[in-house]
Amino acid sequence: MSAKKKLAGIEREVPQNARNTAVRLFRQLHGQRVRLTVVVISIVIYVALSIWNPMYSAIVIDRLWQSIQAAWNGGVPFSPLSLAPQLLQLTAQYLFTWLFYYLQSYLMASVAESLVLELRTQIARKLHRLPLRFFDQNLAGEILSRVTSDLDKISEVLQTGLLKLIVAIGTIIGSLIVMFYYSVPLTCIFLVFMAISMIVTNIVARKNLVCAAERQETIAVLTGIVEEYYNGRNVIKAYNHEAESIRKVSEAAEANRAANQKADFLTNCVNPLIRLLNRLAQVVIAILAGRAMLSGAMSIGVVQAFFQYVNQTSEPLTEASYMINSLQAALASAERTFELLDEEEEIPDPAHPVPVERARGNIAFEHVSFGYDPQRILMKDISFTALPGQKIAVVGSTGAGKTTLINLLMRFYEVNGGRITVDGVPTAEMTRSGLRRNFGMVLQDTWLFGGTVAENIAYGKPDATREEIIAAARAAKVDYFIRTMPQGYDTVLDNEAANLSAGQRQLLTIARVFLCNPPIIILDEATSSVDTRTEAEIGKAMKQLMQGRTSFVIAHRLSTIRDADIILFMEHGNIIEQGDHNTLLAKKGAYAALYYSQFE
Asked: Where are the transmembrane segments (predicted)?
């Protein structure tokens, strides 16, 4: 699946290349060869015992029946002790059958979970190596499904479906061989009924797959509506749309109920029908086996053994379609997982990077060109220089390319032409981590994680002392607010800090930058969510913070960037004007028109 492909509808349930996916999945198990070897040995012994147990029970029962008949005919009185060795052996066989079943199940669970752990670890590492383009072009839900539901499905099928299928194949083949040995006609009758059962099961399985897809689709719709309405609950209440919201949720829930009912009915109706066919087969076999016993063609022990083989063969045969479907779904999940692991990664860091421990802040764009699609270049020949300590403002309409410019500076994207330098060193010759350690960012969209207020402030400097955290909070004008919270700096934020206002969340992210004290600062509408008075206070603190540091400020309110050393006015991805405030006003160009439009 290309990174450009977005999730549409339901994830495919059939792999596109099952063989290669299965081979690759097996290769992932190379570190668990000892466990797999034990599992294979356990399966072989378990299947052998499952086939041998009914045969030996036939011998024991025939001897038991002969002893009872001899006692009835006036011979030696019947004594169970005479069959003690055979009964003990049969008991031991059943005990070892259970033991090897338990052993293979236990080890296979361990193998499956270890495999999932390894794949999750690989995905976690992969996500850190993927370019920002991948996340921009894929839905978050699709990516999360690769890490959660897809891997869970692989684990579940490995532990149950695959193990059952392997055991079933061995048991069915061995049992049928013995059944043909005992009676060809009875085995043929059994296979006729089983063929009917498999046809019915296959028909129902196909319809069930369609219903399952419909159920997943209705769940996705219902979940999306509930999530949307939960996040927009305040707007819904403000516009008195509660009744309409309830109606839409009810409709989605009803559609999900109907889809669930249909899928559950198909899942539950097939078993009674298959059991009915099995019972009919057993009735016919019992009648014919009774005639064979009367004629002396079969003994009572062989008949009961034959019925054991019927029971342990019929269920796997009828469940074959479901087993195959579950394996196909697991292989499809594995295929999606491997597609994620095969996505194109970021360009590797240079083998011998140039270290820039603490930059002076000399930034230069030299004839930079860039396009999200290399065939469609957005930026062409972008050039400007920011000297240490200068304030660079980037303005323009929405979609002009302001954030893209910053993303190139942070090397979230790679340029298609030209170069960007920091203190004369091309960013392509630095490690990404080394480059980004010189930057502090405050984005318009705040992000706070589940943890204490202090931990959120110290996100960029985990080893910061409490005094340093408090000092940063005071600089960001948020210390007083924090102290009014229940546990102050130790208050735990959860649920995306929903109990905080947008401005308060923004202030906490600004405090992070104060604490990191980076040489270069990027502010992307950093004060857009705070009131005018707080903005003025933050502006004073920011002005002090910017002393001696290079800063890039993206702003829509031009009143906040009039003191900028350089203003870059962008339009359609290109810089059409640059200079200080007075110079651009004197030009009476695009910047002047935008500025005066805000102050008319």
From this structure: 34-52, 99-119, 162-182, 188-205, 283-307
Structural element, H or E, at residue 368: strand 363-370
- pLDDT tens for 358-398 read 888 899 999 999 988 777 888 888 899 999 888 899 988 87
CA-CA distances (angstroms) from residue 539 to 542, 544, 545, 548? Answer: 5, 9, 10, 16
Q: Report the distance separating Cα 253 and Cα 195, nearest Å.
A: 39
Q: Which of 130, 110, 133 is nearest to 122 (CA)?
A: 130
* 190/301 Cα distance (integer angstroms): 19
Nearest 5°: phi and psi at 325? -60, -40
Rounded Cα distance between 265 and 528, Å, is 54
Q: Are 484 and 514 in contact (CB under 8 A)?
A: no
- What distance in Å separates the CA atoms of residue 115 and residue 6, rounded to the nearest whole number? 27
Spatial distance between the Cα atoms of 410 and 369, rounded to a whole number of angstroms: 15
Question: What is the C-alpha to C-alpha distance for residues 593 and 571, in angstroms, rounded to an integer?
Answer: 13
- In angstroms, the Cα distances linking 330 to 153, 253, 324 are 6, 28, 10
Residue tagged 């706070």 (tokens): 448
Which of helix, strand or coil describes residue 550?
A: strand
Q: Say how many C-beta atoms besides its own lie within 10 A of residue 430's C-beta.
A: 23
Task: Give the C-alpha separation, 548 to 515, whole Å.
Answer: 16
Amino acid identity of residue 235, one-letter, is: V
What one-character-per-residue DSSP string does 226-256 give? HHHHHHTHHHHHHTT-HHHHHHHHHHHHHHH
Residue 444 has pLDDT above 60, yes or no: yes
pTM over 0.85: no
Other beta carbons within 10 angstroms of residue 159's beta carbon come to: 17
Query: What element of type H or E holds 466?
Result: helix 466-475
User: How far is residue 573's CA from residue 267's CA, in Å, rounded to a whole number?
Assistant: 56
